[in-house]
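Troubleshooting log. The previous structure file for this entry was overwritten by mistake, so regenerating from the original sequence record. Sequence copied from the archived sheet and checked twice against the printout by T.R.
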Amino acid sequence: VSSRLPSVPLFELSDGRFQLVQQGPISPWMAGHGYLLVEKALANFLARIGVERIRQQSATIWNRATGEERETHVRLFVGQFFSRDQLHDLPLDGPRMLSLDDAYCFVSPDLKDLLEQQGFSYLQFSEGLSEFAAAFS
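Regenerated output below.
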């Protein structure tokens, strides 16, 4: 899963805030190595439907150039990890989020359907893991 909307990269500061690396757009879904920030509406939805093994934490996005701090996002910690050698044996029943290398986020087909039904139109989904798995074969 990724965002259809562009976003500038973020850098996590030692105080827990996320600094914009450059000026530009902030997407409702921002993923990078070691972080996943999502808009509060999406975080609330995931909590409401009971997606297992995710934890939420308030997030602050800081624009160093202007001094502005935004608290429009929540940091998600995805607690279900998998490795490349497990690509063909993943549990995909029910609404699940999974993380690979603490940088790539995947959702189960059930969660994909729920997200699409709820109108999170900025999210884009690949069809299964086949294209991704081919890159690591």
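The first helix runs from residue 40 to 49. Archived copy saved in two places this time.
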